[in-house]
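hey so u asked for the seq, here:
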Amino acid sequence: MTLPAQEQSGVAGIPALSVPLLSLAAFGSGISLRVTDPMLPQLAQEFSVTLGDASNVITVFSIAYGLSQLFFGPVGDRYGKYLVVAYATMACALTALLCALAPGFAPLLAARLTAGATAAAIIPLSMAWIGDVIPYHQRQPVLARFLIGQILGLATGVLIGGFAADAGNWRLPFFLVAAIFLAVSLALLALNRQLPPEARKVRRAEGAVVARMIGEFRHILSLPWARMVLLSVFLEGAFLYGAFAFIASHVHHTYGLSLTSSGALVMLFGLGGFVFAVASATLVRRLGEVGLSLWGGIFVALALLATGLAPVWWWAVGGCFGAGLGFYMLHNTMQINATQMAPERRGAAVSAFASCFFLGQSVGVGIAGLLVERLGTANVMLAGAAGVLAVAVRFSMKLKARGPRH
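ran it, structure tokens below
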């Protein structure tokens, strides 16, 4: 497969801070996504709900996050991806504040729903913008470095969520998230004015907005490889995060560690992802896309097995680190394929990818929340391990059959 000339050359004159600022926006998004994980026991106690019911603060965020991305993809293509990310980040500051001020559990769920919707633009449109301006052969390491922000955000969210839960103040992290989003949004708006015209391009289209959006997604779904990528990332999100959401609770209840310590263990997931991001260029060169996806799935499966079956708590140290390393090996390979599923509709294509991923998360966490009281957290992790491994093996086989791109 030969790429178009623009895909090979990229866009010149991009300010050095453009990708780091997007990474900071992803940092805030990562905190928002995972900050409630270690707070589930405290939320369950404070609002007199079960642990499974408390996990709805994760589920509603993921549902809104996933569905809203179907809207933001075409909007980014139409009005400019970087600009839409900047305005969405400002909206995230407001919705995080609503979470902090929620007077009860039902208002908190409503606020988390709106927070997921406003955060939906950040990751997919940032990835699509990088796909617009960075040539394909350089894109995977750049995407990996961009994701450092999200990786650190996921880890930071779990840590500060644990601190807040132990301190009995679950509201404080949301005030912090609101401040981060506000500062980043102002910086993004300022930098957008410095981008070259090619990096702020919009795609003019005629006709009704809803009809155009349906047409774009119909075109993407008509592509066999796009359907394979979208199904794979949906199942990856369901199996991995159905298990991951309960790791902190598993370690806390099984070994008696504090929620702060449990959250610190889960931070090692982010460290594994950070190691991948730093070493991504070498790993891509040595393993290729097929090897990265296969070994990523193997690492995740072994890590979840080790954490779920651990006779002592410190097995979870290697488990959380290995899960993070393996996940980003597999997921980043899916991401690079998502940026090339439909280059002429990249915003919509990457948004469909991200939407499937987070809808998969919501389904996985929702099912796990229903089963965890009956099966226990350890069995939830074993099921997640088997599922991720199956997805990785299938995806790597399809990549190998498809052959290399040039």
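The radius of gyration is 20 Å. The CA atoms of residues 97 and 175 lie 6 Å apart.
lmk if thats what u needed
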